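Each record in this resource describes a single protein on a pair of labelled lines. With that in mind, the following record should read easily:

===
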Amino acid sequence: MTRALITGSSGFVGSHLTRNLLAQNWQVAGFDILSDNTLEHFYQGHLTDKDSIAHALNEFKPDVIFHLAGLIKSNEPQELYASNVQATVTLLETVVESNLKPEIILASSSAVYGLTSGTKKINEKSPIHPVTHYAVSKVAQELVALRYFDAGLLPVKIIRMFNLLGPGQSPALACSAFAKQIALAEKNNTDEIVTGNLDALRDFVDVRDAVRAFEMIVEHGEAGEIYNVCSAKAVSLKQCLGEMMSQSQKQLSARIDAEKIQTNDIPIQVGSYQKIKKACGWSPQISLKKSLTDLLNDWRERVKSNVE
């Protein structure tokens, strides 16, 4: 039975990955700053704390570490670099010092590609052009991890996830923010949804498809390689919002708030998943409509239960 340690196990991707691996009879341990009493093996701590990491490693002895922990948004650039880069250094240094040699699966982001040219699909050899501190921190995180591979210290595989969708997502991200507003409008009998720019085209992939890729990359992926996880389709935020609004019994209208428009917003980004398909046989299975429906219904339940 494969033993997997998941950093950031209580988060959006981590919780889905945990459920997926347990369903496949993996033995799973979580590591997170948030407590979690649903797992038999769980370690509460911060990735800047070597003692906490060492305790988890020495007690659980994982075969695989899925490194998902980190920050997506912060007003303080220093927090992004500390959480995404320095914490990764601390984690991997502690792994090496433990004399274990688990496979490291690093969760990265399509944000590293940044500005791209038109509708051409991005593959893993496409140039990177990060335009935010978050994106730069993910580039640095990848380079840190690959340094341990290049030095012959750890087997490292990197997954660049494109825009995720699915139940449990944070309202800090656009489609989840739309779903939350729709659910609140239905509950409170209001009719306006406030948005930022709706014209941006994104490549959306369901989180449940993404975590299948994490599992498959362990067996079939090659160490030292980077793999895109995406849908290979460009969809506008306007289309996503329209789909969810059409599923509401209320007549809703959308209003663009200039303060929500990001100055460095990327107009279009669409990826290619041919590399991971060739290596692992992975392709997305869940439709955009189902992803949005499940996200909206999840928010309806959260609003009903006052859980946000």
